[in-house]
């Protein structure tokens, strides 16, 4: 990022924070006739994809949580290659926490949302502890309290991951719950974090997937595959430049702007930062709830629904035509940066694919034979791609 771009990005955030000084939700309702920022953003086009992650957060699952953090942006980048264009929402649950007795050791961290930075923020903050691991309970909870897409073409996918018996919940037996999910059009995938041995806990996890119409995989949760590519550094730099094209507005603008930078920092590290950059360069990384460039591109956007006080300093006092000119300039810059990110992403993927192929070949020729241990890559990415194809998506 150049000094000028960085200064522009920081100036926007600072101007917006200054404009909100002294304001709070406790200020009371707006004056009669005042126009306020809408609480919901106009809809976007695309086939809905609802993706729900239910992660066992008991004390032995630190490796799973860390692996999920590293792979979330790969999931987004994968779906960005799908056609027709998906409209992705993600929800996050943790279960198996002893401090959540009243909630039966289950907590919804994020409802279904297209704010991917919010999901990543909560995922990064997940801690582990010991408690009952109610697999049936967390799937039941997700089915009951999430606002699943009603579109008949929607892809609805739930992943539940854990390392102990799936039979602990007698109130919500997983077989009945997962079968119910399947009947409601929700695919349940099972990720067992442990060795798949005959007669062990893995057998019940296979049934989770069978009853839910999904995929089963046993993974080595410490074995997340990390590949550093020559394109990583440049992708990370372009990701920072991309932040300069965001124009925060409304009550959520300041937090959204700061959270974007915070999640860039949380993804620091060559592979994770590059994966996040690729996700940010796609149409699935959408922030219309706080960014005017994304909001303006949404169907049904209306300047009249945004109060002057909720505009960033860069747009205050300007005519609609002048506002449109500012938005168009930022949108053009963003499109140019996203194009460069996507082109680098293609090069990076070729490098990663070659590295993984070499790794698999090396493992096959070891004296002990066999294949390399599965990782969460297989559980998340491969199953999701195949299920999307079955729903009518194609991939570039």
Task: Outline the structure in words.
This protein has two domains: 3-34 and 232-346, no CATH class; 47-223 and 373-395, Rossmann fold (3-Layer(aba) Sandwich). It contains twelve helices and eight strands. The chain has helices spanning 3-19, 62-80, 116-125, 135-145, 174-183, 202-212, 232-243, 253-266, 270-280, 292-297, 320-364, 376-390; strands spanning 47-56, 82-83, 86-95, 106-113, 155-162, 187-193, 213-219, 394-395. α2 packs parallel to α9 and α7 crosses α9. The radius of gyration is 22 Å and the shape is globular.
Short recap of the structure:
The protein is an alpha/beta fold and 396 residues long. It contains twelve helices and eight strands.
